[in-house]
From TrEMBL:
Keywords: Amino-acid biosynthesis, Aromatic amino acid biosynthesis, Decarboxylase, Lyase, Tryptophan biosynthesis. The keyword Membrane does not apply. Residues 127-390 form the Indole-3-glycerol phosphate synthase domain. It comes from Chenopodium quinoa. It comes from the Eukaryota. InterPro entries: Aldolase_TIM, Indole-3-glycerol_P_synth, Indole-3-glycerol_P_synth_dom, Indole-3-GlycerolPSynthase_CS, RibuloseP-bd_barrel. One of its GO terms (molecular function) is phosphoribosylanthranilate isomerase activity. It catalyses: 1-(2-carboxyphenylamino)-1-deoxy-D-ribulose 5-phosphate + H(+) = (1S,2R)-1-C-(indol-3-yl)glycerol 3-phosphate + CO2 + H2O. This is indole-3-glycerol-phosphate synthase. It is an enzyme of class 4 (lyase).
């Protein structure tokens, strides 16, 4: 554990090659500086940045106005580090930007400063909006529960269960993809899915109906989920391993998920750079968490297949930027070349979203998935256990 903390310690970085900035005061910390980079990571980023400088199509926006005040110097450094990270992300085809570290930039007019809405400080799509809001939430959570206190709480967390093992066992038992059934009250695309939403009752029904694992939404603002739901399900004696369905942008969230009873976490390739994914997988391993790495398109799929240590790969049929759902996405991404790599690496592919009928399940199974992640079509059923039997076309509970 000490190693993890050491890995997360702050390092001063500069955007100019070879120049090291003075250590930044701990009074205010940037997510980019204090939690995401080790010295080695920063070197890697520098190397990636130098390699990709010519390939990068991004034109950096003008720097914020400079003032002599210490506060402004800190803002400037945070802005520089944020830019550096965005450049790396752009070279990996990541279009989702992170929230500017000190908030949308201020504009100065005479002695006054104020914000003007512009392309640079307004989220461009729902996924970006969620991720930007997550940064604001995180700043508050981390103040309430700094990493040291989470580290102490880990001692009291229940042991993790084998998420991947449960999926494999279910698949072997039924000959059908292992089911991850999602406890989901609402979503930005579908609104409220179930008014009489009792997360523990729904989780019990899923287990009774033969789900191998459960997925629990924890995002409050956009999905009406919570970490209380996750902990309540874990503490209700449910044996299915639990996936914490969250928009993870910082390692702190991995620790928090673990203290709330998660056995697995979701890492979204549309949001995280390769380096972030590698770093988070390392921490998941130390914490005993399984990582489901989610992709939506060919670019993300090929990036993820190039990263070592990935055991669970989710193909989302829903585009999180536009919300369009198309289950043929699973089949299209699983071409012969990628299927071969997946087989060699022993990766389990999870088909995610938009699955409603036995024909849908057969279609993604035929495409090569060994597990499915299903929310809407189950959570809307008066009896979610019966919903599972209807979805698979047979009772998979025995
Ligand atoms: O309700 P559906 O269409 O069965 O989808 C479930 C799950 O795949 C979806 O909730 C999901 C997949 N990836 C995500 C990332 C964040 C939030 C939600 C999701």
């Amino acid at each position: 554990m000490e190693g993890v903390i050491a890995l997360m310690r702050s390092v001063p970085v500069s955007t100019k090659p070879g120049v090291v900035l003075p250590r930044i005061s701990a009074r205010r910390s940037s997510p980019y500086i204090s939690t995401n980079f080790s010295k080695r990571d920063v070197c890697l980023i520098r190397a990636q940045q130098l390699d990709s400088r010519e390939a990068s199509a991004t034109v950096p926006p003008p720097p914020p106005p400079v003032s002599d005040s210490q506060d402004n110097a800190l803002k400037l450094k945070e802005w520089e580090v944020g830019r550096l990270k965005e450049e790396v992300a752009a070279t990996q085809g990541i279009t989702i930007r992170r929230r500017p570290p000190t908030g949308p930039p201020m504009h100065y007019v005479g002695p006054f400063e104020f914000r003007i809405q512009s392309e640079g400080n307004t989220p461009r799509n729902i996924l970006e909006e969620i991720v930007w809001h997550k940064d604001v939430e995180l700043a508050q959570w981390k103040e309430k529960k700094p990493l040291v206190s989470l580290k102490k709480a880990l001692g009291a967390a229940p042991p993790t269960r084998d998420f991947i093992g449960a999926l494999r066992a279910a698949q072997q038992r039924t000959g059908l993809p292992g089911l991850i059934a999602e406890v989901k009250k609402a979503s930005p695309s579908r609104g409220v899915l179930r008014e009489d939403f009792d997360p523990v009752e729904i989780a019990k029904a899923y287990e009774k109906g033969g789900a191998a694992c459960l997925s629990v939404l924890t995002d409050e603002k956009f999905f009406q989920g919570s970490y209380e739901n996750l902990a309540a399900i874990r503490n209700a004696g449910i044996k299915c391993p639990l996936l914490c369905k969250e928009f993870i942008v910082e390692a702190w969230q991995l620790f928090y998920a673990r203290t709330k009873g998660a056995d697995a976490v979701l890492l979204i390739a549309a949001v995280l750079t390769d380096l972030d994914i590698k770093y988070m997988i390392k921490i998941c391993k130390i914490l005993g968490l399984a990582a489901l790495v989610e992709v939506h398109n060919e670019r993300e799929m090929d990036r993820v297949l190039g990263i070592d240590g990935i055991k669970l790969l989710g193909i989302n049929n829903r585009n999180l930027e536009t919300f369009t759902v198309d289950i043929s996405n699973t089949r299209n991404l699983l071409d012969a070349r990628r299927t071969e790599i997946i087989r060699e690496k022993g990766i389990i592919v999870v088909g995610e979203s938009g699955l409603f009928t036995p024909a849908d399940i057969a279609y993604v199974q035929e495409a090569g998935v060994e597990a499915v992640l299903v929310g809407e079509s189950l959570v809307k059923q008066p009896d979610p256990a019966l919903g599972i039997a209807n979805l698979f076309g047979k009772d998979i509970s025995v």
